[in-house]
Amino acid sequence: MIKANLLVVDDEPVERRTLTDILRLEGHHVAAVANGEAAVDHVRLNPVDLIILDLRMPGMSGLEVIRVLNQIDPDIEIILLTAHGSMESAIEALRSKIHDYLLKPASPAQILDSVSRGLTRRDNRLRARERQQTDISSEENAIIVLGDGTVVDFGRRLVCSGSQTVFLTPAEGRLLRIFVEDVGKVFTHRELVLLVQHYPTTQQEAPEILRPLVSRLRQKLTDIPTLMRRIVSVRGTGYVFENEQSLSA
Q1: Which residue of 22, 210, 241, 243 has the fewest C-beta atoms within 10 A of its own C-beta?
Q2: For the whole model, what pTM was predicted?
Q3: CA-CA distance, 179 to 142, in Å (whole number)?
Q4: Which domains does the chain have, with CATH numbers?
């Protein structure tokens, strides 16, 4: 099991102590607080990899805490632990991007298994992001020549076609690089936000974040129509960078 910084949030002293002891026996660094406000304060001041969070507490509810924590550090994995489970609360919790939803009394084996899976998921996500950023750094000086002779210089973030030269922002350059390096692949809005901006979003938020960026990129490429028209919206899904043959057909 990955050793990590964990936070237990529960207003019941016995439950809080039991969870803390179970997790410390596995070698984790564990802090414990009695309410949502204290949890938010702790996360603002200390590194936290995973939180075990009670749903119903005085003051801030578990779901309210989740919404705040997703803004502070969306990489924190969250396990919601509650004695008052319902279909509605489970659905709302999953919409809030938590890792797991467990009903009290959960066994030590269930808790440790959920913690292990949550930490593994977090580690895999962070490693993938590091590899992606390394790939971007190693390729930032790459120059790509497209089939129509258009030159894309990622180091200087510019696109040249004939007498036309277009300068891109860093985000526009990352978006165009993703497109030209994976021609024909349909990317969802969420995938593109994660790849370009490096943070996760909900299915509802992603289009609102991405559309202005795509619109600006298309506007800048207006003078290079052979490139601009290859950025195609896929209704209800995201975008695809079409190959020239598909567009000609």
Answers
A1: 243
A2: 0.54
A3: 14
A4: 5-134 (3.40.50.2300), 140-248 (1.10.10.10)
67, 40 Cβ separation under 8 angstroms = no
Tokens of 227: 């490139």
Provide the angle, in degrees to the nearest 10, between the axes of the packed helices 36-45 and 62-72: 10
pLDDT in tens, 186-233: 999 999 998 888 878 888 888 999 999 999 999 999 989 888 999 999
pLDDT digits (tens, 9 = 90+) for 151-175: 888 888 889 988 889 999 988 998 9
Model confidence pLDDT, tens digit, residues 54-75: 988 888 888 889 888 888 888 8
* Beta pairing partners, 238: 188, 234
The H-or-E segment that residue 31 falls in is strand 29-33
Q: What is the three-class DSSP state of 168?
A: coil
**Tokens 């924590």 belong to residue:** 69
Burial 223-237 (b: 16+ CB within 10 A, else e): ebeebeebbeeeeee
Question: For residue 50, what are its two tokens?
Answer: 């995973």
- Which helix (H) or strand (E) element contains residue 241? strand 238-241
Give the C-alpha separation, 229 to 190, whole Å: 22
> Rounded CA gap, 60 and 101, in Å?
18
